[in-house]
Specification:
34% helix; single chain; 6-stranded antiparallel sheet; 14 helices; 4-stranded parallel sheet; 21 strands; alpha/beta
Length: 508
């Protein structure tokens, strides 16, 4: 039997929306179970410490003082941007597509200078995403974010540090130092940037602070380098190639093509459009966090698996981390999400499921149920039992519709639960089969439940319930049929076992 997981995401700002989402998640789980699946509800990672560590091995995690954020890999971003991660609902795809920030550029490979001691997993090169290489020959360094694999991290109060590593310039062969900068965005490109202070203002500011040289490979036409005409940085996308070899004298835009062709001939650059989607919170740092993970405070990320014993970080993890768990990834997945979380938690979940470094990879995208805003209206009793409010949130509107729960919504739910208890306490008579009235109503209600039209399903089940309550006798066949429908819809307890309820459901 293939398992089904119903994953319920939460809105940290709204208890009513969370209760509504949980009610829908529990209903879908009951429906899948009635249909014969091994269904369970998930609200978070089953083993969150291992899940965080596993994710850190497959992608990038970055930390701040109060949270840990997931940085999707380029491969996952590319899959989601191309809608190549399964048949997600078009409404979800459309909302996510609006969030993608596309940047046109190229991926340059900078071969790493070997170290005396090289591990088996040592990369051969450092990849950077570059959008402007008009001044490529004068680039003087590469900077990486603190959590990058090549980073040595930053100490308290540090904003930049030299890693001690060098890479080769793919055009000139010069050795470029690799620096760590706290301003480097891990989510942009590859989390590594090429520094060209002569032709880029932010690079100029950084390089002046840390003492890196400022060189020029673009200058005005016929520039001869005389002191009276020295170029003032940053000299941006103008002039002609200068001190750049075979491209000297060419306008900057033509020189750019010459540089690219030369590096491409060496197999060290490809054109690329980066799909930026940001970073996503997957855990909150708390003194009494539900799990501890090994933490590297200098690199501000999960410690490497071969690191010595060091500090740990207490975390409360987000429900999206469930997508890292192998049993969730291998199951048929249904996701219930508040509408406010579609652009962040649901997108994070989609990216996690698209990560090539996490296995197994599901063949189908999840079913997605989006839950709209909900809140008790003025005049609603604040002491309404949770099971009553939960049922009212479930059956009074389609999931995406905004719902203001009023007393006229609460009263039928309360009466339904009260009458249900009375029916469960009734003495039952033996009978070979269901009555025609119950069979007809049950078929209609089951169809509505299967189509997830819970408003109409509740109306018809409520009517059937009242008719059964008025009857002088109640047969066991009618009672178990009603109980199966009531259990799937409302999650109410019944005097019948799960096997009997499933059999009654199947017989409808």
């Amino acid at each position: 039997m293939r398992s089904t997981i119903v994953l319920v995401l939460r809105d940290p700002e709204s208890a009513a929306v969370n209760l509504r989402s949980e009610a829908w998640g529990a209903y879908l789980c009951r429906l899948r179970s009635a249909e014969g699946a091994d269904a369970t509800v998930a609200t978070g990672a089953a083993s969150s410490g291992e899940a965080v560590t596993r994710l850190a091995e497959a992608a990038t995690l970055v930390g701040t003082d109060n949270e840990v954020r997931y940085v999707p890999t380029r491969a996952a971003r590319d899959r989601v941007a191309a809608d190549d991660d399964g048949a997600w609902p078009q409404s979800t795809v459309s909302r996510h597509r609006k969030l993608i920030r596309r940047s046109v550029g190229a991926l340059f490979e900078f071969p790493l200078e070997p170290r005396a001691e090289t591990g088996p997993d040592e990369p051969a090169s450092l990849t950077t995403f570059v959008t402007d290489w008009t001044g490529l020959p004068s680039s003087c360094a590469v900077a990486v974010h603190p959590g990058h694999p090549l980073s040595t991290g930053l100490g308290p109060g540090e904003h930049a540090a030299f890693t001690g590593r060098f890479c080769r310039h793919p055009l000139t062969g010069d050795l470029l130092p690799i620096w760590v900068g706290d301003w480097v965005k891990p989510e942009f490109g590859t989390g590594a940037v090429l520094l060209n202070p002569g032709h880029n203002l932010p690079d100029l500011e950084f390089c002046r602070k840390v003492g890196l040289p400022v060189r020029f490979s673009l200058a005005p036409r016929d520039y001869d380098g005389s002191p009276a005409d020295w170029v003032k940085p940053p000299y941006i996308k103008s002039g002609h190639a200068y001190r750049s070899g075979s491209a000297d004298g060419l306008p900057f835009d033509e020189a750019k093509n010459v540089y690219f062709a030369a590096v491409a001939e060496r197999g060290l650059v490809v054109e690329h459009t980066d799909s930026g989607m940001g970073t996503f919170r997957i855990a909150t740092v708390t003194p009494e966090g539900g799990t501890d993970v090994p933490w590297d405070p200098r690199r501000r990320t999960v410690a490497r698996t071969d690191a010595d014993d060091g500090p740990t970080l207490g975390l409360d993890v987000s429900g999206v981390l469930s997508a890292v768990e192998e049993h969730v990834r291998s199951a048929d997945l249904t996701v219930v999400t508040p509408s406010t979380r579609v652009e962040d938690d649901l997108l994070a979940l989609r990216l996690l499921l698209a990560e090539p470094g996490l296995a197994p990879e599901g063949k189908n995208a999840p079913e997605v149920v989006v839950v709209g805003n909900a809140q008790p209206a003025k005049g609603t009793d604040p002491d309404t039992p949770q099971e009553v409010l939960s049922l009212a949130l479930l059956v009074n509107a389609a999931p995406l519709d905004t719902l203001s729960v009023k007393p006229q919504h609460i009263e039928p739910s309360q009466r339904f639960l009260t009458v249900h208890e009375a029916l469960c306490a009734r003495d039952l008579t033996a009978g070979p089969e269901r009555s025609g009235e119950v069979s007809k109503a049950a078929g209609q209600i089951k169809g509505l439940l299967t189509r997830q039209d819970l408003k109409q399903a509740f109306t018809q089940l409520y009517r059937l319930q009242k008719n059964l309550a008025k009857s002088e006798t109640l047969s066991e066949q009618d009672a178990v049929c009603y109980a199966a429908l009531a259990h799937v819809l409302a999650g109410v307890a019944t005097p019948f076992g799960q096997e009997a309820l499933n059999s009654a459901w199947a017989a409808v």
